[in-house]
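Hi there,

I know you've been waiting on this one. I reran it after we fixed the sequence typo, so this is the corrected version. Both the input and the resulting structure follow.
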Amino acid sequence: MNENHEKLMPSPEWAEHMHQDVLPVATHGVELGGELLEVGPGPGAATDWLRRKVTRLVAIEQEADAAAKLAVRFADDPVVEVVTGDASALPYPDARFDTVASFTMLHHVPTRALQDRLLAEAYRVLKPGGTFLGSDSLPSDGLHHFHEGDTYNPVEPAAFLTRLQTAGFDKITLHVGHNLIFTAKKNVS
């Protein structure tokens, strides 16, 4: 994570943006179920909001330092379990979670192939009928400069629809505004 992210992501302003502008839209009409897997939670702005909506939330974070800070932050919360790991190779059995969520982290996955692997893993660990939901930033010159010295591999919304379908998802909804917000279902059969 570069210096820009280190300042923005743990800030109250970022949490407010996530809690007011992103999470209510991404979860609208979605039955989250009991167990949710959040991939790439960073400092936990979405985690803090989502933990109140489920009985168990597993947050898997690839960066060991970020995972350690998140584990300390939620150490006394019986709902949240923080795990250090790679979302493109999830250490969970098939059909484990009711919901998988990814908020503003896909553009930090360095290659399209790894992003597609993450989508496939999200599909694999979802229970039939489960939902994959989340958000990501849209490509822009401003974000390119914001990510200087950091991984920046934004998803294109039109291509993302096909990529979700290729991973097996259906009933896909994309909201494209100042960012990309999505929901996608795993088939029941």
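Quick highlight: DSSP finds seven helices and seven strands in the chain.

Best,
R. S.
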